[in-house]
Amino acid sequence: MASHYEAPIRRPLVTGEKSYHDVTVDVARPVEGKANRAWWIVFSIALVAFLWGIGCIIYTISTGIGVWGLNNTVDWAWDITNFVWWVGIGHAGTLISAVLLLFRQKWRMAINRSAEAMTIFSVVQAGLFPIIHMGRPWLAYWVLPIPNQFGSLWVNFNSPLLWDVFAISTYLSVSLVFWWTGLLPDFAMIRDRAVRPFQKKIYALLSFGWSGRAKDWQRFEEVSLVLAGLATPLVLSVHTIVSFDFATSVIPGWHTTIFPPYFVAGAIFSGFAMVNTLLIIMRKVCNLEDYITVQHIELMNIVIMITGSIVGVAYITELFIAWYSGVEYEQYAFLNRATGPYWWAYWSMMCCNVFSPQFMWFKKLRTSIMFSFFISIVVNIGMWFERFVIIVTSLHRDYLPSSWTMFSPTFVDIGIFIGTIGFFFVLFLLYSRTFPVIAQAEVKTILKSSGERYKKIRERGDSLVGTGADARTSNLIASTESPKAIETPSTGDDNSDKVNSLLGSIGTFDATTETADDLKKISGVGPKMEDVLNSIGIYTFLQVSKMTKKEYDLLDAITGSFPGRAERDDWSGQAKNLLNN
Question: Which residue among 93, 95, 217, 395 is least crowded, i.e. fewest CB within 10 A of its CB?
């Protein structure tokens, strides 16, 4: 009888015959190996877009904001549209990491790291637009209530624009700490696997001395829950404050109380679409199809479908309130959006945001990778049009017909926006080459319950901790439960070959001519581990001192116990010191 029952309708979140060691190797491969051709193609395209944007920003600062398409009537347009769009995209990272963590959703494990990184990089792009719009970005610190060359500068705290400064900076700092905290075990994993001394030192510094002790994990989980509790209200508050930029004005089309929840739902909607876009790219570029599965994509599509429906209800509510209010200016603002000169933007918004997510009701479509990728891009285009419609169509025709005008972006406007998209992907692709894109420690916690390998063991009725045909798997599972669970490895054909290869490299022990050493003197080797080493044939410091990366990996494969520990604790170096002493 299986040792663990799980409903058969639950599909595995980790596909392939993955062991704990396989997870470590797969997650570390994009960082340790060379970038493949797909990575270089995407990076080159993003870098060209980024450099074009840099050129447009330099031209804007050197010439003046007049190179933009702004005018006296539409003085908020391209830059604020892009600012709100980027802030909205940044929302899904915190939602996935914080809210789903609090609700103990297992499917977040493989996607939360990329979503958190997306939050950081999106907020960076959002912060660029208000700074550039100042015209003199070197004076951007004036928005902070700090002493300066004019004495104590106290900014206008009644301004919604200042609320943005505090909201975005708070959101960025909390998200950054949350992201970095989750990376600590993975930094330690890369540190322990690093071969080059410089790389080992860098990741040792980034890991903040993580050792993997029980105390470290206890504090890690406590801090993660506290940060998740802090970050969850930020999901609601940050975009609510952004919506106040509009809702606190008296301009028809803006002055409405539905904006805060409407903006939050729209932000989650666009954020999840961007996460979907990134994950579909990353699973291909980094060969992570076994961890970012079709099931993950399907669950993301369901969230997109739900939030898209909420956004559709908000659109209908806006129209109803405009009609029910009896205010002719409010009625004209919405009539102008649908039938005025910017009708194409309004109906593009409706098609992309309301109609396209409804295709996700069909399972065949929401489980299609290519269709999901297409819809995620369509949704983000639609959410950009939404911000454009809200801002431009409410401004270009105000109370005085003599001031009515049209807004058209210049090549500089377009160039800066494309540059921020390129900058975003440059940052994300560089992140994928330096940081683990999947939280390997968290994936390992769900491997026994949601891994394809262990589901097959349960379907056969085998015990997860028994011995038999798959003894190596059984020992591997037992060893991950607690330090007390280390068992003597089996001597099956697979392990026999590995044992022979290991002893062929480090030498064998001859009890007639040699004396066994006390291996417990090596830090990280306890009585149980000493018994395991003895059962393999390792008895002396001389044998341990000959271990290199190859032998460490063989030892991990044979014992299945604490992968990477021998290399991390430098058993070989410790054994050499003991021999010298």
Answer: 217
